[in-house]
Fold this sequence. Notes:
Layout: H1 20-30, H2 35-41, H3 46-54, H4 61-70, H5 75-84, H6 102-114, E1 120-123, E2 129-132, H7 134-139, H8 154-159, H9 171-189, H10 192-202, E3 226-230, E4 233-242, H11 250-253, E5 256-262, H12 265-274
Amino acid sequence: MSIVAIGPSPSATAPTDKGVGPLLRAWRERRRISQLELALRADSSARHISFIETGRSRPSEEMVLRLAEHLDVPVRERNALLLAAGYAPHYPETPLDDPSLDALRDGMERLIRGYEPYPALVVDAGYTVVAANRGIAMLLEGVPAELMTPAPNAMRLTLHPEGLAPRIRNLREWRGHLLAQMEREIALYRSDALRALYEEVAGYPVPEDACGGEPAEPVPYFALPLQIEHDGRVLSFVSSISTFNTPMDVTVSELAIETFLPADRATTTYLHALIG
């Protein structure tokens, strides 16, 4: 697969009819930070933070952005806070196929290709696959075309009974890991689309014989491995996820690069022989 254009992310925009105060309070409580602690971080006072949260004081645009930064609010939600306060959005949302993102697309393409023969892919906030290398294509061999179009979804591809699920030797463990990951993101982003995806994939049947598989060779795993069959062999991977540091665009902030590192020598040897 190559880099493709994606539509708006399903990450929800926070409602603005409540005003910026209650929204900031919700983010502060979610981060488990007191008004005093937030005030110290933002070079303000607890009294001023209280006035903002109760609507007695209207924060400046600079203050909204400062509080959002110290609360680690996602970029899309920072725009929502600004709108609730009566200001224009600060961060653009550029389509991934826009010429201004040529360097970004080229960089991601080269990054995941350079990771071959090991699998790597790029997904957006809704787990739509926007790029993948030959390692991923190898794992997806035989997956029905209807799961690949119009836009493949990583969670659907992994957990669907006609997708990779029957090939995953430790399906219950890996499924639990993925669902827990989605639950954390739903709590953070409050996305209706992400919750709908979660309910869909969580409802997929799990074979009664799905259980933890034995690795090809004994290894002291340092992370939960994905154990998946390919052409009669069991391959073991551990995954890592990278995001962009200090993004200034909504689209870029919601991209994630997931790479799969071989967890044993047998997997390394097999991939180098198969893909080169």
